[in-house]
């Protein structure tokens, strides 16, 4: 039963994203986003001077920056001295310079351009999801909604900064590479296909929506895409090893000869080099060898930033790892301003539980998706009554193994870069993980989809009940007292998961008996359960903007 056509659902997600993004762009007070003044000054310098800026000592006025942040960027205090992003690659700023000129320097206009670029990320997330899970458009829609409504991501793509363009270009690269994997000897006949007993659900069938399996993409165009990434932001440089790895895999799979390898490698490398090398040569000319990215100059001028060695010396490793986990998670879902405006603790708890449930659903899929354990054909039924072929949906989702491995590698590279950066500076900002947002969104969608099926919710309820009991025990043993809200939220989630599972199981059995009303009720209940975390994210985003950001920073 197809309640909503995937294209209509995608249009609704995109429209809501644009509304939320525009609200963040308009109502977030000026400069109350990390590094925004420095990015804005880059655009302004390029538009006014007609040349790219050079990063100099003194462009990171630490004391002044702390003072102006504490004062909430009053008009009397200029942002002109804040120029520490002048070393960045130029593409994003070159795109925004004409908008700066036409809008006479309007910050809101520049922010809205970033919001439009973010719409491309949402669309590419859906397109990648359709390639990874060709029979399940619902999972692609869910991943797109995750990217569209995550509060911190909305805040990031609605500010002036080059992260959004880096994400967009990396998403386009992943889309191309996943498509190649579908066309290079991928044996779809070996994919396990998930079916729901008694008929298809709202998103468990193949619709007439194109599956985006076209794999033709010229190698020089891929080189062009890679070159654009190289002149956008270093955090997206993980695209280079991904492209190289896929090319090597392709040559090995097709037993390519040396001549072909050289020809195809040149077709990718030459366009990328023609785009990036002039910028690298320019950087070397102003910063010296081997600082072709300006990063050594940047690291030299950012005196005052907390470094790992200093933090550990003052607080110890235990405090460091506690901070790393807490700050990374919270700033991934939403910490605003300059990492100083936090959501209510209860919101973080609820989001952590949702994330934990998604992880649990992913773990339930592992035996069937990764190790391909066959399903035993178990049926359920009342004693003495007819058996009901109610599958608990343990089958793996029909998916592209190559795509799963590629996206997993992409996420791993992002986490390694994040860890490496934090070996130098204490920068536990979850937004630095957004180059892995699409793989994470797809993983959450697959995990949550597994939970909202008959028989799975009871496992989630049991785990949440154990968590609530553990929190009660911890409070009693430690002497800290009962953690009321964590216990209440965990217990409420356990009850909700159990009631949902009971409802789905009952309706599935009635559907097996051929009751049309039960079939429709099953689809509606499951669709509502599937949509719940994404609707919750959108509501949290609204609360973050009008309940936290505007009141505290306005």
Structure description:
By secondary structure, this protein is mostly helical. It has one domain. Helix content is 66%, strand content 1%. Strands 1-2 form a two-stranded antiparallel ribbon. A hairpin with a 4-residue loop joins strand 1 and strand 2 (341-342). It is globular, with a radius of gyration of 25 Å. Mean pLDDT is 86; it is low at 185-214 and 371-395.
Q: How many DSSP E strands?
A: 2
Helicity range: 55-70%
Principal-axis shape: globular
Q: Structural class, from secondary structure content?
A: mainly alpha
> What is the residue-averaged pLDDT?
86
Count of individual domains: 1
Major sheet size, sense and barrel closure: 2 strands, antiparallel
Low-confidence stretches: 185-214, 371-395
Give the helix tally. Answer: 20
How far apart are the first and last residues' alpha carbons, in Å? 47 Å
In order across it, which strands form the biggest sheet?
Answer: 1-2
Strand content: under 5%
Alpha-carbon Rg, integer = 25 Å
**What is the H/E string?**
HHHHHHHHHHHHHHEEHHHHHH
Question: What is the topology?
Answer:
Elements: H1 6-27, H2 36-49, H3 62-70, H4 91-102, H5 107-132, H6 137-149, H7 151-157, H8 163-183, H9 219-230, H10 239-253, H11 258-287, H12 295-301, H13 308-315, H14 317-333, E1 335-336, E2 341-342, H15 345-369, H16 401-421, H17 437-451, H18 457-478, H19 484-512, H20 516-553
Antiparallel strand pairs: 1-2
Helix pairs in contact: 1-5, 1-6, 1-20, 2-4, 5-6, 5-8, 6-17, 6-20, 8-9, 8-10, 8-16, 9-11, 13-14, 15-17, 15-19, 16-17, 18-19, 19-20
């Amino acid at each position: 039963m197809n309640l909503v056509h995937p294209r209509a659902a995608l249009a609704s997600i995109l429209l809501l994203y644009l509304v939320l993004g525009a609200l963040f762009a308009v109502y977030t007070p000026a400069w109350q986003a990390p590094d925004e003044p420095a990015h804005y000054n880059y655009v302004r310098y390029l538009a006014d001077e007609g040349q790219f800026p050079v990063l100099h000592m003194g462009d990171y006025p630490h004391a002044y920056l702390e003072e102006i942040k504490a004062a909430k960027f009053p008009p009397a205090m200029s942002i002109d001295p804040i120029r520490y992003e002048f070393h960045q690659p130029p593409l994003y700023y070159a795109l925004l310079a004409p908008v700066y000129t036409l809008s006479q320097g309007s910050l809101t206009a520049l922010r809205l351009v970033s919001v439009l670029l973010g719409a491309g990320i949402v669309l590419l997330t859906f397109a990648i999801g359709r390639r990874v899970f060709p029979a399940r458009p619902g999972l692609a829609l869910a991943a797109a909604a995750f990217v569209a409504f995550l509060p911190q991501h909305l805040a990031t793509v609605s500010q002036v900064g080059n992260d959004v363009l880096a994400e967009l270009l990396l998403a386009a690269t992943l889309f191309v590479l996943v498509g190649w994997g579908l066309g290079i000897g991928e044996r779809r006949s070996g994919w396990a296909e998930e079916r729901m007993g008694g008929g298809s659900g709202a998103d468990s069938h193949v619709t007439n929506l194109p599956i985006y399996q076209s794999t033709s993409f010229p190698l020089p165009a891929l080189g062009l895409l890679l070159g654009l990434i190289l002149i956008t932001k270093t955090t997206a440089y993980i695209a280079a090893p991904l492209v190289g790895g896929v090319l090597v895999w392709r040559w090995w799979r097709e037993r390519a000869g040396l001549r072909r390898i050289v020809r195809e490698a040149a077709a990718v490398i030459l366009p990328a080099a023609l785009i990036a090398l002039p910028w690298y040569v320019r950087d070397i000319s102003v910063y010296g060898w081997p600082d072709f990215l300006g990063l050594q100059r940047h690291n030299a001028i950012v005196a005052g930033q907390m470094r790992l060695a200093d933090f550990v010396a003052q607080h110890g490793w235990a405090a460091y790892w506690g901070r790393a986990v807490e700050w990374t998670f919270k700033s991934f879902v939403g910490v605003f301003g300059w990492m100083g405006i936090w959501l209510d603790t209860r919101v973080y708890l609820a989001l952590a539980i949702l994330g934990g449930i998604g992880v649990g659903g992913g773990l339930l899929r592992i035996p069937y998706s990764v190790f391909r354990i066959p399903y035993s054909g178990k049926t359920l039924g009342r004693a003495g009554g007819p058996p009901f072929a109610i599958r608990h949906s343990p089958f793996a989702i029909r998916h592209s193994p190559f795509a799963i491995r590629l996206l997993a590698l992409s996420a791993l590279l992002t986490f390694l870069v994040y860890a490496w950066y934090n070996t130098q500076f204490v920068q536990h900002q979850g937004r630095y993980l957004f180059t892995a947002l699409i793989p994470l969104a797809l993983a959450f969608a697959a995990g949550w989809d597994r939970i909202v099926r008959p028989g799975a919710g009871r496992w989630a309820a049991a785990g949440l009940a154990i968590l609530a009991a553990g929190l009660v025990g911890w409070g009693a043993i430690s002497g800290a007292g009962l953690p009321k809200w964590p216990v209440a939220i965990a217990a409420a989630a356990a009850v909700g998961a159990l009631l949902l599972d009971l409802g789905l199981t009952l309706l599935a059995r009635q559907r097996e008996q051929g009751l049309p009303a039960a079939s429709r009720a099953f689809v509606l209940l499951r669709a509502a359960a599937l949509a719940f975390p994404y609707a919750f994210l959108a509501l949290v985003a609204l609360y973050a903007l009008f309940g936290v950001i505007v009141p505290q920073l306005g």
